[in-house]
Amino acid sequence: MALESSSIGMKAAAVALVLALPMVTYGQSTRQQIDQAKALYEAFQVEAARPILQRITSPGYLQTVSSIEKAEAYKYLGASYAVLASQDSAITYFMGALDHDPFTDLDPTKFAGAELAAFGEAKKRLFKVAIRPLAGPRVVKRDSLPIRLDFITTQRANIRIELAGTDTVVLFDGPNEGARAISWNGVLSSGAYARPGVYQLRIRGAPTTGGQQPITESMTLRIEHVFEPLEEELRELDPNRPGDLLPERIKPAEPWVDLIKGAGVAVAAVGLPLIALKTSDIGWAPHAGATAFVGLTSASVSFWYRRSHPQIRRNVDENTRRRDLRAKFNTEVRQRNERRLDRTLLIVSPVTGLGQ
Fold it and tell me: How much of the chain, in percent, has pLDDT values that exceed 90?
């Protein structure tokens, strides 16, 4: 009688626990309820855990629940049926878990063979590809800080993973089965950083068997560049801009001006004495003739030389010096800017609401 009373008491306590579950979970968050169900499952109280999980996966569930949380609920529901040898139900729930989160997996150290077998069959029946969402912005540095991007296929498939936007880079193209992590350092095949802009990270996969149609999943990312302020180069020297350069050639009229000046000197040398000293006995003619000769000769020589040598050599040398200094300065600026750009950081951020 004592044993029967004890057995009846234990059964009553178990029934009371199950009946009390809705009261226990009332007011708890979805995460708390899942954690409670997992604790019950791991304590081998499968029947007690199942109502909590069924409520979370029910269409009438009113609390906030993410796809990850719903996948976890389906996962433990599938496991709860697998341990009771209800394979069909277990496979159905495992497929629900994979449908909500293809990254769902079973830890072989925590789940038995029956659960692992049912989960493996679910993956054979449901082909999915997925990209693991980024939790937030990631900093990428060319040489030392790549970004990790996680992908998965539930079956063996031929996949192509690319980042397409302002530039396009193929991250992987080939066969894959299961999870795959790709490290990307932010550069293109040319070795240059991907330019800033909005990009689509896409995975397209087709299973190698079964004849299923290819599936494409995408995630929208924004790439930004962060670098030190760059120096401005000095503008090119412009001969048409006042003050930039000295004139390097004489004006075409200047030789003629010299010739006219020389002719004027000759005319003045003869004309002035002729007018002023025409009644005088002073012998001015030889002096006037010599002066006129010198004036005309000098003007002619200057006219010929400046016409044949229009370049102003000292100005050319000065302009060359100015250009060399400007070029040297700008070269140093470009080199300093290149070193700054080599230290550029990429900020890769998920963009919600686009291409998700």
Answer: 53
Whether 21 and 52 have beta carbons less than 8 Å apart is answered as yes
Q: What CA–CA distance (Å, rounded) separates 356 from 130?
A: 11
Query: Helix 30-42 to helix 2-25 angle, to the nearest 10 degrees?
Result: 160
Beta strand 147-164 with 345-350: parallel, antiparallel or unpaired? unpaired
Instruction: Give the pair of three-digit tokens for residue 228.
Output: 């030190």
Q: C-alpha 201: how far from its chain's center?
A: 12
* pTM tops 0.70: no
Does residue 130 contact residue 102 with C-beta atoms inside 8 Å? Answer: yes
pLDDT at 273 over 70: no
Q: What is residue 303's three-state secondary structure?
A: helix
CB 146: neighbour CB atoms within 10 A? 17
Q: Which stretch of 27-31, 45-49, 141-145, 287-291 has the lowest confidence by average pLDDT?
A: 287-291
SS3 316: helix
Q: Which of 336, 343, 351, 350 is nearest to 225 (CA)?
A: 343
Q: Tell me how crowded residue 301 is: count the other CB atoms within 10 A of its CB.
A: 12
Q: Radius of gyration (Cα) for the chain, nearest Å?
A: 45
The pLDDT-based confidence of 221 (bands split at 50, 70, 90) is very high
Q: Look at residue 8 in the predicted model and tell me its pLDDT.
A: 41
Residue 28 class from Cβ within 10 Å (0-12 exposed, 13-18 middle, 19+ buried)? Answer: middle
Give the closest residue to 151 by CA, choosing from 132, 165, 167. Answer: 132
Counted residue by residue, the chain has a size of 356
Q: What was the pLDDT predicted at 307?
A: 60
Cα–Cα distances in angstroms (integers) from residue 152 to residues 27, 95, 125, 201, in the given order: 35, 15, 16, 14
d(CA 120, CA 328): 68
SS3 40: helix
Q: How far apart are CA 322 and CA 86, in angstroms?
A: 89
Please give the Cα distance from 161 to 146 (Å, whole number): 17
